[in-house]
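Session log. Operator J.P. requested a structure for one protein chain; no other inputs attached. Running the standard single-chain path with token output.
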Amino acid sequence: MTETMKAIRHVGYHTFPELKDVPKPSPGPGEVLLKVAGSGACHSDVAIFNEFDEGLVPALDPEYTLGHEISGWVEEVGDGVAGLDKGDAYLVYGPTGCGRCDMCARGAETYCRYPEEAGANGLGLGRDGGMAEYVVVPAGNLIPLGDADPIAASALADAGLTPYHAIKKALPALNGGGKTALVIGLGGLGLIAVQILKALTGATIIATDAKEEALSSAADLGATTVPVGDKQVEQIRELTGGRGVDAVFDFVGIGATVTTALRSAGVGADIAIVGLGDGSAADWSFRASPYEARLYSTYWGSRDELFELVEMLRRGQIEPLYTTYPLEKGLEAYQLLLDGKVSGRAVIVPHGE
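Structure written below.
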């Protein structure tokens, strides 16, 4: 008789996920079966099942198990896998690529040249992910956690790695005294971004959001906060003496936040659009935008950066803010995320804490 397990599945576009019984997987050659410790619920999951239309990204077509922020303990290894002991804790690098292009070779499967060959964008993104009791992952995607808490670490796989990659890219703009960084959007990514900026730079950190609770959390982490409102940009620029900020990290990515980023930036600033919102309505004009500012997008991060991020966790330089939910209440967590009622990260813990 086939052994089964519970899993939260993406079953259709514009359709809420379902908790279903599915066969417990077994690892193939070069793969590892993990007993899931934690799996973060991400806004990109919500975008996929709630906003995407069929044919937009064929690699994400249902059905599969959600969850691309995964940590767990080794349960079983497939043929050709050595050096991994049962019970050891690992964080999972979520992206999967073709494995043969230059981007994959450097550990940046997010920018794989031939994603269609992989058949999926990643674990939980076209391929079965971690919103389940067990998950099969490529052995090369495992990042050792050592004595770090795997549940706390799970959110780092995206909510930590994505801002870390964006901030590392912008470090030249923040190198020097008197620098200022702006974080727009204080969800799971934004709050970790505040901590990463504090650990990696000496910049003054300004954080903005519409939620009082999020602003309070950012202030507790050392940021100067500005609420969303008519005087938002004016207040941000006042904090910089009118010069504008040196680097902006927009973790929302809608037209209004991109416009705020452009209006808040100073001459020569880096403006990183990290959020997956539709920023097509951003208000840009030559004279109203800072000269020589660099506007660019970033997506996720690389395997080597995830190793660095785990080391920051182990050294106490970052501490993810999260709330745990049992797998049976995972759908409730997604509904709260959909309703904008999650502070920090919602982490599903299939086997308890």
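Operator note: Residues 4-158+301-349 form a domain with the Quinone Oxidoreductase; Chain A, domain 1 fold (CATH 3.90.180.10).
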